[in-house]
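quick one: adenosine-5'-triphosphate bound model?
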Amino acid sequence: MTTIVFDNIWKEYGEHVVLERVNLALDDHEFLVIIGPSGVGKTTLLRMLLSQEIPTRGRILIDGEPIAAEPTADRGVVFQRYSVFPHRTVLGNVMMGPQWAASPILGRLFGAARRALEERAMALLARVGLAEHATKYPAQLSGGMQQRLALAQALIMKPKVLLLDEPFGALDPGTRKSMHELVGELWEENRMTIVMVTHDLPEAFLLGTRVVAVDRRRTDPQAPERFGATIVSDFEAKCRSVRESRLFEAERERMRLTLVSGYSLPQDDALVPALVKD
Ligand SMILES: Nc1ncnc2c1ncn2[C@@H]1O[C@H](COP(=O)(O)OP(=O)(O)OP(=O)(O)O)[C@@H](O)[C@H]1O
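yep, here:
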């Protein structure tokens, strides 16, 4: 279970008010998407959720408790620019986080512990479609494959909250579509909460269970840095209707396949998320 609360959050850098009065309560297993103009403070919101920035005012609560002061393994992140380590193999990249967590001085595990971790990392690489590239180095991978690796790297730490900062921004449309499917499926399978920043509106409504727009409500032409941005629209109901219509489409497809194949397909269970993504 993971709930997140932004309770009257402000973020200022000196005289520059970036965010003001941000209030938001997220339910467990939400997929929140943050949209808004460039420079408005979207990444700053993510960085506060990672404890890389501290709010100037207000509180962030995770599961009712004040957020940890330092970044912790239960909050993973994937950035637009690949955050993988170039001098490590694909498998080495995925194993690195758990190795440092278990062995902070050497950053290495040995024997059975290492084999168990390797098995888990290989299973995850298979899940993101990179098993046969395990011994390659990141430079030998395409952009989409590097983002799959970055996802595996984050997921091996079993985060309760996964933060995605424009993770598909640098990908071509075909690769982006397959990443949407993968992220949607991983979100369902891992029951985590995802908070994603994007500039792509269709992507926001395709993936989000909730989409919030961040912008300035007021501006002072004489002092543009005087007022900060806040949540100006919350499209929770719209997301629900989009998802419900996709579920309706999935159900219609299920009926069609049943008629065509002559077999009865399972009801609204594991099959539906796969169909919903189409
Ligand atoms: N460490 C910092 N010191 C001073 N100002 C900062 C710092 N970090 C961010 N800012 C300012 O905060 C504002 C919001 O930046 P942020 O990166 O959160 O915007 P964004 O909405 O994510 O932008 P984009 O969509 O272009 O990525 C910007 O004006 C930026 O210059």
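The beta strands are 4-13, 16-26, 31-35, 57-62, 65-66, 75-79, 161-165, 193-197, 210-216, 229-234.
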